[in-house]
């Protein structure tokens, strides 16, 4: 399955206007028509190959969308100006006022805040549960439930949802399963496991250069068309449109995704294994000690490993802050939110990307204030990186005498 998938996605071919190896960038917000009837038909969505206005679609956005649909094995895809633009469009397309969502309790803080705080305005309520437990998800489903939502690998706790089991449950109740696959592109293919729609924050691994914000929804042609509908499409009407210039640069970066994901995974596994051997509390789905190891292993595309993210728990916020500052000073990486960059990035989610989640709920879900999320970079010499991390930990006395001797 993997090789085929990579071949397809890297083989998506669009020549530039002058035969260039990259498609030409569509540098227009609006498009001309030779006759008025074609314009009307295009408005109605009936003319293949015609463009109307770039908030609806543009050649560059469609090129990127096609590559992303191929990546996820879906019929179609729509790109957005951010991951949150994609998430909010999907939710508002699938849910009406008074509807209900069952969501994983460990999700990106922005998505959590959207569901918990913002959607209240529309009386859309969310039950947050541990989606690794199928019974808990089923218990929350009511006649008003219009969506089951999870992250394939959750932010920041790296919990792994069993997509196939969730998809079967969703099917039983005729509810769409929407999966945010931002943490595990290529490594997990949610649509192939039965998800109705797959979302990515392209800002992360897929673009890979931390120079832009973008998102995508991959799904059926009907669903993607509904999001773009000029009368009722949340994507079209909320206006979170990706700029063509940026779509073009993301497409170019995406060409190297397979090789990057393999390296991120290889490096993350190395660091996780070393830290675990040192007696550090480390969480990585590729470690046998991780609660999601079996689930990840059975649903992964094995060529790509277990992803580039690990978490380390150093107990207190003070320890976490000291360690991150020292790691930055020693050029291991940057004290910054986000992930999927060539350089290692680290942050303490409790006070940053998950700070939208109230402290008592963070405690319930196991998000300790001393937790550091680390997006491992593409370091050529990962042993050297580990040695530097080890030096930082010794300097801060985070390795006990016992662990040092081991
Ligand atoms: C898992 C996940 N989904 C969605 C988002 C939101 O994406 P964006 O920042 O591109 O809007 C993030 C951002 O950190 C994320 O980590």
Structure notes:
With 406 residues, the chain is α/β, with parallel strands linked by helices. It folds into 2 domains: 253 residues, Type I PLP-dependent aspartate aminotransferase-like (Major domain) (Aspartate Aminotransferase, domain 2), CATH 3.40.640; 149 residues, Aspartate Aminotransferase, domain 1 (Alpha-Beta Complex), CATH 3.90.1150.10. It contains 16 helices and 12 strands. The strands form 2 sheets. A 7-stranded mixed sheet has the order 1-7-6-5-4-2-3, with helices on both faces. α11 runs parallel beside α15. The longest helix is centred in the middle third of the chain and has 21 residues. It is globular. The chain binds pyridoxal-5'-phosphate. Pyridoxal-5'-phosphate binds next to α4 and α5.
| CATH C-level category of the largest domain | Alpha Beta
- Computed structural class: alpha/beta
Shape field:
globular
Bound molecules: pyridoxal-5'-phosphate
Tally of structural domains = 2
How much is the average pLDDT?
Answer: 94
Number of extended strands? 12
Fraction in helix: 25-40%
Strand order, main sheet: write it out. Answer: 1-7-6-5-4-2-3
Largest β-sheet summary: 7 strands, mixed
CATH topology of the largest domain: Aspartate Aminotransferase, domain 2
List the helices and strands and how they pair.
Elements: H1 2-11, H2 36-43, H3 59-72, E1 76-80, H4 83-94, E2 100-104, H5 109-116, E3 125-129, H6 134-140, E4 145-151, H7 163-172, E5 177-180, E6 197-201, E7 215-219, H8 221-228, H9 234-238, H10 244-254, H11 257-277, E8 281-283, H12 293-299, E9 309-313, H13 317-329, E10 333-335, E11 344-347, H14 359-365, E12 371-375, H15 382-395, H16 401-405
Helix pairs in contact: 1-3, 3-10, 11-15
The structure holds pyridoxal-5'-phosphate (PLP).
Pyridoxal-5'-phosphate (PLP) is lined by residues 82-84, 108, 110-111, 151, 155, 180, 182-183, 201, 203, 213, 215, 353.
């Amino acid at each position: 399955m993997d090789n085929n998938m990579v071949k397809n996605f890297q083989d998506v071919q669009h020549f530039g206007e002058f035969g260039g190896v990259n498609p030409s960038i569509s540098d227009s917000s609006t498009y001309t028509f030779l006759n008025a009837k074609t314009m009307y038909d295009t408005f109605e969505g009936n003319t293949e190959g015609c463009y109307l206005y770039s908030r609806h679609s543009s050649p560059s956005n469609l090129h990127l969308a096609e590559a992303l649909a191929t990546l996820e094995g879906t019929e179609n895809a729509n790109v957005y100006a951010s991951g949150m633009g994609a998430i909010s469009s999907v939710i508002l397309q699938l849910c009406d006022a008074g509807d209900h969502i069952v969501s994983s309790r460990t999700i990106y803080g922005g998505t959590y805040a959207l569901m918990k705080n913002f959607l209240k305005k529309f009386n859309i309520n969310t039950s947050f549960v541990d989606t690794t437990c199928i019974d808990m998800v089923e218990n929350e489903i009511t006649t008003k439930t219009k969506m089951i939502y999870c992250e394939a690998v959750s932010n920041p706790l790296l919990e792994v949802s069993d997509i196939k089991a969730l998809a079967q449950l969703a099917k039983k109740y005729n509810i769409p399963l929407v999966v945010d696959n931002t943490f595990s592109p290529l490594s997990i293919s949610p649509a192939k496991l039965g998800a109705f729609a797959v979302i990515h924050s392209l800002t992360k691994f897929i673009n890979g250069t931390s120079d832009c914000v973008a998102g995508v929804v991959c799904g059926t042609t009907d669903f993607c068309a509904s999001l773009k509908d000029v009368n009722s499409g949340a994507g079209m009407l909320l206006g979170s449109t990706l700029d063509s210039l940026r779509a073009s640069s993301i497409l170019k970066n995406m060409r190297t995704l397979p090789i990057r994901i393999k390296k991120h995974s290889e490096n993350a596994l190395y660091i996780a294994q070393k830290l675990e051997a040192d007696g550090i509390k480390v969480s990585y789905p590729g470690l046998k000690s991780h609660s999601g190891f079996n689930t990840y292993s059975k649903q992964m595309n094995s060529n790509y490993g277990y992803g580039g993210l690990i978490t380390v728990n150093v107990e207190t916020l003070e320890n976490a802050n000291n360690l991150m500052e020292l790691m930055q000073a020693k050029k291991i990486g940057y004290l910054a939110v986000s992930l999927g960059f060539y350089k290692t990035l680290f942050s303490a989610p409790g006070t940053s990307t998950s700070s939208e989640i109230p402290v008592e709920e963070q405690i319930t879900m196991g998000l300790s204030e001393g937790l550091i999320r680390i997006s491992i970079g593409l370091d050529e010499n990962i042993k050297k990186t580990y040695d530097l991390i080890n030096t930082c930990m010794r300097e801060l006395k985070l390795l006990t005498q016992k662990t040092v001797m081991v």
